Amino acid sequence: MKRKLGVVVIALGLLSVSVPVLAHHGFDTEYDAKKKVKLTGVVTEVAWSNPHMRIYIDVTGPDGKVTNWNMELTSPNTIRRQGWGPTDLKAGDKVVFEGFGGKVVESRGSLQTIMKVSDMKPLFGPGGPDAAQAQ
Amino acid sequence: MRKVLVISITLAGLCAILLTNLHAQGRGDGRGANSQPGRGDGTETNNRQGVLTDNGGVRYINPGSPTVPDSEVNSQPIPRLPDGHVDLTGPWVGGGSNGDIERDGGLKPGELPLLPWAKELRDRRLSKDEPYTACLPMSVPRVNPYPWKFAFSYTSKGLSHIYVLHETGDAGAHRVVYMDGRKHPDDLIPSWWGHSIGRWEGDTLVIDTVGYNDKFWFDSRGTPHTEKLPTIERWTRLNYGRIVNEFTLEDPGALSKPVQLKFTGRLLRPNLKTGGGELMEFICLEDNEYGAAAQIKVGTGTSNK
Hints:
The complex is a heterodimer of chains A (135) and B (305).
Chain A: H1 2-16, E1 31-47, E2 54-60, E3 66-72, H2 76-81, E4 94-102, E5 108-116
Parallel strand pairs in A: 3-5
Antiparallel strand pairs in A: 1-2, 1-4, 2-3, 4-5
Chain B: H1 2-25, E1 52-53, E2 59-60, E3 92-94, H2 101-104, H3 116-124, E4 148-155, E5 158-166, E6 174-178, E7 195-201, E8 204-210, E9 231-237, E10 242-249, E11 259-267
Parallel strand pairs in B: 6-7
Antiparallel strand pairs in B: 1-2, 3-11, 4-5, 5-6, 7-8, 8-9, 9-10, 10-11
């Protein structure tokens, strides 16, 4: 019974996570939910740019061709307020990332998760290293 | 029997949550309705999973702006200004709508009394065309999930102006509320923020605005208005952590009757090492690449035609 309740609690938790929003615009105007990607690459730039942050990542395909992915997050202010800063991810870091490709330009994507291969800890969510009670 | 009861309650709960989420997520076809959900009440900042979702459960990295949680809204007394009035400064998150003024303002679907042309236009508008995506002002009562604040400006004559500052930088850097007793001019040229005069009614700040243009959208759903629009905002600080905006919308050009809406704002957490309690720089035009991934031009919907 406990186990069943546990499953139910997890299911409820997952469902209740679906809260808005990308602040500047909607997802489906630009990105394709069917183009889910999970890739490994090397960061070439972490742009703390407005209105939204972008992380550029070189990904080497099976044919040896390198594609520079341009992955969008939310605003730099929002990420900064959660305690993340310029030292948390830098050019040259090897990363695993997931997201969704652009409707026309596939390598322009929305970023869902990103982790350095060295520690596999999710970056840029709530409660970064300097969060100081942010939650 | 007990087992059946538990399963039934569980299923009912799951259905209720699923329905709520479907409503919040919108149609997911990019055609206006809720395609940029954003309840505008700041509650998204309570998300602790590290990601938030948009249409159809698609996830972004967007942890939200940290706000004072419900458990701490009474942790301090309501502060007062040197002149004795309640200090409404903030910064606040929420207090207006972003995705859908009807839903976020407390109405049921279809209750916003739009005239037929306005409803038809709202349904026809595409979210990619909303002016804000090209960094134009959101205007009243719209807010995005970034903080904003009232800045009280005192001169030798007392409180003369209140500036409303949004953390959207060039997308409508500031709005002016005149507090010196002047009236609305009778020869206003329609503008993005209109002409606002304010007064205190007890501890409530009342802001009366006329002279809006018809170029901005009330929400990303595309709810339109006309230049006949006046608005009345009644801002009341409920406690240390929350503020309420009781909002009267009256537009004989787009609505069949005036309507009363209500929004709640949450205080930005002041105790953060990074950006705590302060607005931060935000320059919308710096690198706005919206539309590039789909190779489309955005933000062109500044007409009611």
